[in-house]
Amino acid sequence: MRCPYCNFEESKVIDSRSADEGKRIRRRRECLSCGKRFTTHEIIETVPLIVVKRDKSREVFDRNKLTSGILRACEKRPVSLEQIDEIVAAIESNLQINADREVTSMKIGELVMEQLKDIDEVSYVRFASVYRQFKDINTFLEELNKLLTEKQ
Questions:
Q1: Of 73, 52, 49, which Cα lies nearest the Cα of 60?
Q2: What is the 3-state secondary structure (H, E, C) of the chain?
């Protein structure tokens, strides 16, 4: 496994743990050259999931792209990286189980918003504002009002 810090190709496994109910193995590694530690995840290779975008273009599902979108919404919020990893794992698992080979980006966005709503409302509104492409302050207020009525 190539070190993300120095690109040396050899590392040793320090710790291995099962994750995501046995669907993934989390390995803690140490580079044999620079000594820095990093984490890798081993998963079962499955048939690739295709995401159908709004413009009808298609691309392979990218876990990292999903993670970075959620990270942006949760920036400077009390949401841990572990919680974000759990959200991404839950969504990925849901998509693998419930989807055919294609899923719309809209479905993925809805799944993210469901998860964020329970964890952090500010992150939820941030994500929703980008995902739903709020055009003005009224659209933003409508979403906030929906959130408030659901809470009561």
A1: 49
A2: CCCCCCCCCCEEEEEEEEECCCCEEEEEEEECCCCCEEEEEEECCCCCCEEECCCCCEEECCHHHHHHHHHHHCCCCCCCHHHHHHHHHHHHHHHHHHCCCEEEHHHHHHHHHHHHHHHCHHHHHHHHHHHCCCCCHHHHHHHHHHHHHHHC
- pLDDT tens track for 21-35: 788 899 999 999 999
Q: What percent of the chain has pLDDT over 70?
A: 98
Sheet of 24-31, strand order: 11-19, 24-31, 37-43
Q: For residue 148, what pLDDT is reported?
A: 79
Distance CA 74, CA 116 (A): 9
Alpha-carbon distances of 148 from 2, 13, 34, 43, 78, rounded to whole Å: 48, 48, 51, 39, 20
What's this model's pTM, rounded to 2 decimal places?
Answer: 0.64
Query: How far is it, in rounded angstroms, from Cα 65 to Cα 43?
Result: 17
Pick from 147, 98, 108: nearest CA to 131: 108
Biggest CA pair distance of the chain: 56
